[in-house]
Amino acid sequence: MEEKKSIARAIERLTGGTQRRRGRCWAYGLAALLSVVTFVLFWCTNAFRDAILWNLELRNGSRSFLLWQRPPVGLQSNIYVFNYTNVREFESGIARKLKVQEVGPFVYRESLSRTNVHLHENRTVTYQEKRSFQWISGLSERQNVVVPNVLLMSALAYSRDLNYLLQIGFTMMVTGLKLRANPFLELPVGEYFWGYEDELFEMAKRFPPLKQSLPYDKFGILAFRNGLNADRITMYTGTDDLGSIQRINGHESYRIWGDEKCDRIYGTDGSMFPPNLIQQQPNATIYVNAKEFCRQLPFRYERRSFSNGIPTLRYKLPSNVFTSTSNKDSCFCPKESYDSVTRICPPAGTFNISACKFGTPLIVSFPHFYSGDESLFQKIEGLTPQQDRHESYVDLHTHLGFTVATRMRFQLNLEVRKAVGMPFSGNLEDGSILPLIWVDMVFDDLPESIRQTLYLSHYLVNAVEAGLQWCSLIGVVVSFGALLAALRNQEESNNATKPTTTDRRTVELDRL
Ligand SMILES: *[C@@H]1O[C@H](CO)[C@@H](O)[C@H](O)[C@H]1NC(C)=O
Ligand SMILES: *[C@@H]1O[C@H](CO)[C@@H](O)[C@H](O)[C@H]1NC(C)=O
Ligand SMILES: *[C@@H]1O[C@H](CO)[C@@H](O)[C@H](O)[C@H]1NC(C)=O
Ligand SMILES: *[C@@H]1O[C@H](CO)[C@@H](O)[C@H](O)[C@H]1NC(C)=O
Ligand SMILES: *[C@@H]1O[C@H](CO)[C@@H](O)[C@H](O)[C@H]1NC(C)=O
Ligand SMILES: *[C@@H]1O[C@H](CO)[C@@H](O)[C@H](O)[C@H]1NC(C)=O
């Protein structure tokens, strides 16, 4: 009987064991389920990438928000000046063509900060840009150059539409003030860029309509880029449309070109692009909002590339971007007269920003009139357009959509607009387009520390993602193996503890 009892206890233990086993099965089942969920998450969805993208969103206090307000790397601007070398011969009529010589580069480091930042509830942020330029290398700013007198030419362009009497008055005033009334000036490059004393400008500043619109106190050809920019920019901060500019000064339109399509504000500031767009449609055209030209610039997908040690996507500015014709971008061309429908477009390869710059007769093009019309070269000697030196592109991170490298190259030109009743423009022909400077904005030689971080983060993210994917695969295999083993185990023990069997055994024991 003793024996019988202990065997019964053993049987009891055995059945208790079955319950424990069943519990284990549940645990393995749960683990298998979890591993399937993580597997699906890492292999079939973008959960991991989305988590990284989520970190890119600009939120109060986040790291990306701080980096965005004060970008740690500045753009480098290589600036080239066109020095007019035969002005005396040209003015005296000996030379029929003006001769220019490219002088440079003058290399500046541009630091950008975004100030007066206000985050809104609806995933937008409003801010202003503040830039400063520091000369770092290249030719000295003290070099003297001979350049067109932009202020005088602007004054002529303004007074072209005044009546004859006012023009005479203006002429007398300019002559009386003994201003620098030559069509060309000789001055140091630094002053030409960032501002020089000019009585004409001092006079203009006191002129009420100009008083508010002039953002600087000394006139320089790049002075408008230096310092706090008055424009308040509103931009989206979520990953769907990260970086897209929604409004400038509260308006969704530039209200410059008198046309809805050309006036619409969209695109980003060029430092980042919506990552979801880049991931889903890498070959779509992306847009940069070029506030200084009052328009957007399309960048077309070109190819996969490699910069700063990581794979990138290259987007290029089409070579005909500055060409407006009656069937392409005609809304950028000025109307023939105020109430007319016909528009007159500038020569191919030039973009008229006069309307965008308070009527200053400025024209934008590629450097050396690259891809520009033949007529542009007829009055100027010394220009040598070259595709690889004079085109613009951005290289974007393939997943995150931020700019890893870029080269933006533009040339600023002056249009000669003579006023009939006024001297001062010498032998210059009405409508000539005179090159002033060209700027090569570079962001491709990152400092070593940042390059390494970028390299690491790219490969680390990929490695971690791959690691997680393979781990989840192993997890699935292991947990399913365990589950199967547990199930088989349970089935076996079920066979061993089947009531019939136990009954039979008890009977046998009884018989003993
Ligand atoms: C620009 O041209 C003028 C006139 O030819 C010359 O005197 C001057 O040295 C030139 N400047 C530079 C920086 O080459
Ligand atoms: C961020 O939050 C802090 C504290 O809530 C607030 O003082 C600050 O103004 C916020 N910053 C922005 C840009 O909204
Ligand atoms: C977001 O909020 C700001 C401030 O409240 C407002 O000016 C802006 O129009 C809003 N934007 C959208 C898209 O609703
Ligand atoms: C982008 O590529 C896809 C196929 O890879 C193609 O179907 C689509 O038309 C392309 N889109 C553009 C804008 O080129
Ligand atoms: C540039 O635009 C201004 C005004 O918008 C116009 O008066 C001028 O004729 C234009 N110049 C060219 C070359 O189209
Ligand atoms: C369990 O018992 C059934 C018959 O009762 C048998 O077919 C099966 O193979 C047994 N399973 C194991 C794992 O021994």
UniProtKB/TrEMBL annotation:
Parts of the chain that traverse the membrane: 25-43
Alphabetized UniProt keyword annotations: Cell membrane, Disulfide bond, Glycoprotein, Membrane, Receptor, Transmembrane, Transmembrane helix
Region feature (Disordered): 491-512
Entry GO terms, CC: caveola; cytoplasm
Subcellular location: Cell membrane; Membrane, Caveola
InterPro entries: CD36_fam
Family to which this protein belongs: Belongs to the CD36 family.
Protein name (database record): Scavenger receptor class B member 1
Native source organism of the sequence: Frieseomelitta varia
